[in-house]
């Protein structure tokens, strides 16, 4: 019985070996490389989406997550522009802070910098011929004055003691700019809702001062459009999170918001921060009306999207198909030149991808966005379609 079992196994191995030899077309063993599981999975996915189409594709979990991610900016910097005082107090909270004093055209600028104990801190002139790393100092000095004009002094101390530092201006023929990267101290985080949408929705600005894992309470935050002086106060709507709604009706395409924050750390240190974030706003001249008919063809699940536009131009729509429990399956897109009036754009989801998902029904249309792409950056319509259950079954 034991010999029969061994013989049976030998026959199986022989058949497998012959089959393998035929598949690799007489490749010699030393030329065959064993592939890892990730490599095999990559090859499988490549075969699944081997068709050459740009209007539809397989939706990955990573791509779906990216669609819902909020873009945040982070800052440990604060900037004081156009300072005319001869004595400026700088609250430093980080142990790796860098302090810069800049004049765009005044080459005679001379300063003295004192630490919290009153001792002198050496500052050295920095060549403006080479760009300052953005993770070290603000870019406020770039593009202002000639590279041979003015003065930029920067501290070269690697270890800083938190506390109040004082800049004494010994000689100056013009206002100065102070740039501090308070590295090692609390961070100002800024994010937006409705960014890139029709300006009639406005934009809500959110900000948070993070001191380690804790959010700072009772801080003072204001926002303004870069290049203007009008400021809007952010309110602490939830503990440690500050927000305000910004009217973007007069915005055209891209604007930069500047957020300035004052607060006090849990160690009792004063804190200053400056942050910025870009806002995309304008008129989309479009409205997303809803989902129209569904059609199953030999190759696609076709879903109509009804839209209304009030100005001629190029309009783009995109949407996803998810499983009943939100599983990512496929995406599709369409773009057309449209005249003013009601129109229908079509999302054609490849049946090949739907079949590979293992789902045959319970499809959910989600993340449907309409955008005016006549000019860039494109502006999204105010409406969005999520969690619309389709009737079609494969």
Description:
The strands form five sheets. Strands 2, 12, 13, 14, 15, 16, 17, 18 and 19 form a nine-stranded antiparallel β-sheet that branches. Strands 1, 22, 23, 25, 26 and 27 form a six-stranded antiparallel β-sheet that branches. A five-stranded antiparallel β-sheet has the order 3-11-5-9-8, with no helix packed on it. With 394 residues, it is mainly β. The N terminus is likely disordered. The protein is elongated and about 80 Å long. It has three domains: 105 residues, Jelly Rolls (Sandwich), CATH 2.60.120; 89 residues, Immunoglobulins (Immunoglobulin-like, Sandwich), CATH 2.60.40; 104 residues, Immunoglobulin-like (Sandwich), CATH 2.60.40.
Number of domains: 3
Helix content: 10-25%
Tally of DSSP helical segments: 4
Specify the structural class.
mainly beta
Low-confidence stretches: 1-42, 44-50
Q: Major sheet: size, sense and barrel closure? A: 9 strands, antiparallel
CATH topology of the largest domain: Jelly Rolls
State the end-to-end CA separation. 51 Å
CATH class of the largest domain: Mainly Beta
The overall pLDDT average reads 84
Give me the Rg, rounded: 30 Å
CATH architecture of the largest domain: Sandwich
Shape: elongated
Strand content: over 45%
Compute the number of strand runs: 27
Task: Spell out the key features of this protein.
Immunoglobulin-like, 46% strand, mainly beta, six-stranded antiparallel beta sheet, Jelly Rolls
Chart the SSEs and their pairings.
Layout: H1 2-23, H2 37-48, E1 56-58, H3 61-68, E2 72-75, E3 77-83, E4 87-92, E5 98-103, E6 110-114, E7 120-121, E8 123-125, E9 151-155, E10 163-171, E11 176-181, E12 187-193, E13 203-211, E14 214-215, E15 220-225, E16 232-238, E17 241-246, E18 253-264, E19 270-281, E20 286-296, E21 300-309, E22 313-322, E23 328-338, E24 341-350, H4 351-357, E25 364-372, E26 379-380, E27 388-389
């Amino acid at each position: 019985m034991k010999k029969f079992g061994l013989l049976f196994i030998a026959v199986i191995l022989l058949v497998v070996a012959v089959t393998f030899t035929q598949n690799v077309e007489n490749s010699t063993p030393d030329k065959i490389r064993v592939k890892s599981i990730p490599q095999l999975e990559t090859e499988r996915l490549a075969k699944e989406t081997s068709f050459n189409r740009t209007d539809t594709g397989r939706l990955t979990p990573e791509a779906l997550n990216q669609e819902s991610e909020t873009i945040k900016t982070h800052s440990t910097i604060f900037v004081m522009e156009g300072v005319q005082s001869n004595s400026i107090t700088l609250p430093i909270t980080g142990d790796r802070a860098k302090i810069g004093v800049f004049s765009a055209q005044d080459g005679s600028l001379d300063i003295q910098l004192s630490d919290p104990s009153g001792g002198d801190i050496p500052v050295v002139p920095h060549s403006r011929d080479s760009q300052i790393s953005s993770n070290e100092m603000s870019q406020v000095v770039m593009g202002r004055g000639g590279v041979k004009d003015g003065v930029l002094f920067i501290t070269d101390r690697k270890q800083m003691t938190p506390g109040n530092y004082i800049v004494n201006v010994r000689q100056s023929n013009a206002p100065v700019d102070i740039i501090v990267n308070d590295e090692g101290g609390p961070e100002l985080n800024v994010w937006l809702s409705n960014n890139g949408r029709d300006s009639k929705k406005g934009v809500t600005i959110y900000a948070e001062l993070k001191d380690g894992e804790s959010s700072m309470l009772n801080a003072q935050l204001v926002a303004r459009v870069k290049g203007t002086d009008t400021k809007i106060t952010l309110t602490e709507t939830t503990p440690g999170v500050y927000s305000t709604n910004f009217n973007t009706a007069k915005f055209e395409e891209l604007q930069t918001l500047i957020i300035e924050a004052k607060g006090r750390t849990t160690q009792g240190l004063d804190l200053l921060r400056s942050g910025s974030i870009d806002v995309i706003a304008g008129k989309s001249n479009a409205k997303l009306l809803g989902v129209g008919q569904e059609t199953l063809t030999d190759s696609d699940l076709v879903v109509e999207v009804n839209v209304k536009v009030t100005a001629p131009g190029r309009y783009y729509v995109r949407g996803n198909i998810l499983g009943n429990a939100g599983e990512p399956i496929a995406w599709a897109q369409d773009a057309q030149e449209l005249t003013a009036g009601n129109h229908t754009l079509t999302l054609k989801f490849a049946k090949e991808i739907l079949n590979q998902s293992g789902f045959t029904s319970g499809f959910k249309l989600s993340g449907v966005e309409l955008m005016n792409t006549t000019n860039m950056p494109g502006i999204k319509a105010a409406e969005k379609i999520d969690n619309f259950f389709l009737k079609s079954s494969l």
